[in-house]
């Protein structure tokens, strides 16, 4: 097998997943040209991470919901509600910041359990339950805040979103700590990839040619370290990025390797078959929504910390961005297909587009139009791809 | 009678219909005389429904070989609408009514009575509907929603819908399968009236007594071929004699060595199902399985023979974690101890595995690969602390690919792309990995080719040789006779007989399977 044939196969065999990475690269290139390189400046990359982190956090939970064959329209309202609860406790109640964080998480879990109960045990479609939730939790937010914004949060709370970790190893015009953390990450990724490759060889599975394998690692390492360098030369490692990275790692593990994750895919892929295979469908559906509530509360904390305030209208339309991220990232509308990584790339595509257009000074109205078209094309591509696969059968 | 001359309203000549890999119909001939009631008889899967779908345009002209001659000219139906325009109307076994629309709306669905300008003329709709209801003897208001009607009345409504289309040739696929005796009698009476009005009917039914009572002639279909057509009046004097004649035609084929040899050494009783009664999940009061008792011993293959709608799958699925039905009563014993099979995980834990008759809907996740399908029911064995050992999973799937002879390059192939035989082997692998004591195989060879069937039989033989108890549900009597030690017959929800395979004949089984009143019979 030649390297070229292998490379071609890598793309064509899995067009569904590789297509989106290609699109991501193209969109980055397009907007760096259109913004004269401003998009990829140290300062802008940092603000990109801060600005879209909560959408990405929501998309992690959302993609699990979508793989399971459901949808959650309420997450924007839950972001507002959890932020509001934290604000009332910390700002109005004068409690320490961590009490606010715990209260917000507790609220998120309760919200998730509430919606999970109706979806899983009463059997109401998630679309309806979460549409009701969208109204319900927005209303509760207004109630909790008495319809006014609460601000500012104490600096410890705000640091969750706007803090930077740096200077541990001293700075030389760049932050060594940031670079070291990223280097550890890259090495861990490489080690993991190598271990998986070895296991696959041991189990007599096909693997990419060694050249391609190394090339892939080098490209990933180069891109990541370049990104790290940009962060390091600006303000260092944003705390939010650490939260996000931990969540992505944990949930990639959960979706790919845990029994729970497998059951989610099984339910979305074929509900009846899952049931007859002994999957406790109700229980899995319930925990899917509890998990979504948990992640929505994390997003709520990050969002309120970033703006250092809890606003009645916070998180408006976040659900749509999160859902769009999942579908652009290759999740199937019918369930059973999707990945956390895909949702993250889908979210980043939206982020780069929004950010790029903002930098270019494109009108808000045009931005909406472009985003809408991209979402539509992404799903159209998915449908086309499926039909192509069916025809090849 | 409108036309007493025996001219043919319909002639189907040399119909051959092929699906990918399967010849469903081969050179089938069917001649129907004007004004008669013509019965089509055959075992499940013989090709009766396929033939009717060809006739009604469900499979359009060009997708089959042969000619349909209607009133002397060749008909080329592209859609159901084309055939309906020519007065050929089919009533499918599964009723095609919209529950939340009214009777009148259902009758004229797709054929609405309109005013000039396009708006629906409700007065005309309801008035014409009332007339049609009277013709079929249904005393309901045209505005009653359909969900409020019982199955019997819904069946009559289907017929009203058919005659609203000026039907000349009415095709009924198992019209009385879901009806009680009263409703059935009413429906048959209606068919007789239609005959008087010159409407020709083609009827598919497993209830041979009905056929003997009402039909003029019958055509026997077996293995996708038309075997014979005869006048029922010539077939015998009594209803029993006629039924025997039909049964001989339906099963008249020899057993050849399509089944691998096996030595039978049954051991101790493993599974006992006692007084098992299941009610229909949505139709209150309808009993689907009625007081069933059966046992399976270790190392024994036990068959359940029954026609469509006899309650075979319902029995199996209700035992497997109450996956079907409501108000289930009865007991299940494994190795002499009563076990709880109230949920699927409990049933799996107790040692029961159920391989569904519909592997695409109930057996497989078609968008996943072989590996993940094989592990789907046994993830507990593969995981530690909630995480799956994927190397072990890969190894297990690989082992089953070898031992089951699943023909793919590796276990990462998407299951939806496999042939029926390979898919069935994946489902079997999934259940074998749960290490069950009892395997319930529901139509294990449906839709797979002869070679793969032989392999599945070989796998069954290996299982019983290893001391497992196997319960096989099948519509194919030769298959049951070829692989089982004992066979229970199921008819209309009741076990009507228990037959040792050594003394069983297809005729004897068929008689038990069509027996409508319950008596425990030892054949």
TrEMBL record, chain A:
Topology within the bilayer: Multi-pass membrane protein
InterPro entries: ABC_transp_permease
Residues spanning the membrane: 20-41, 48-67, 73-90, 97-114, 120-137, 177-194, 206-229, 235-254, 284-302, 322-350
Keywords assigned: Cell inner membrane, Cell membrane, Membrane, Sugar transport, Transmembrane, Transmembrane helix, Transport
One Pfam family linked to the record: BPD_transp_2
Annotated compartments: Cell membrane
Function summary: Part of the binding-protein-dependent transport system for D-xylose. Probably responsible for the translocation of the substrate across the membrane.
PANTHER family: ABC TRANSPORTER PERMEASE PROTEIN YPHD-RELATED-RELATED, XYLOSE TRANSPORT SYSTEM PERMEASE PROTEIN XYLH
Protein name per Swiss-Prot or TrEMBL: Xylose transport system permease protein XylH
Taxonomic lineage of the native organism: Bacteria, Bacillati, Actinomycetota, Actinomycetes, Micrococcales
From TrEMBL, chain B:
The ABC transporter domain, residue ranges: 10-248, 271-517
SMART domains registered for this protein in UniProt: AAA
Species lineage: Bacteria, Bacillati, Actinomycetota, Actinomycetes, Micrococcales
Signal peptide stretch: none
Record key words, sorted: ATP-binding, Cell membrane, Membrane, Nucleotide-binding, Repeat, Sugar transport, Translocase, Transport
Protein name: Multiple sugar transport system ATP-binding protein
Gene Ontology MF annotations: ATP binding
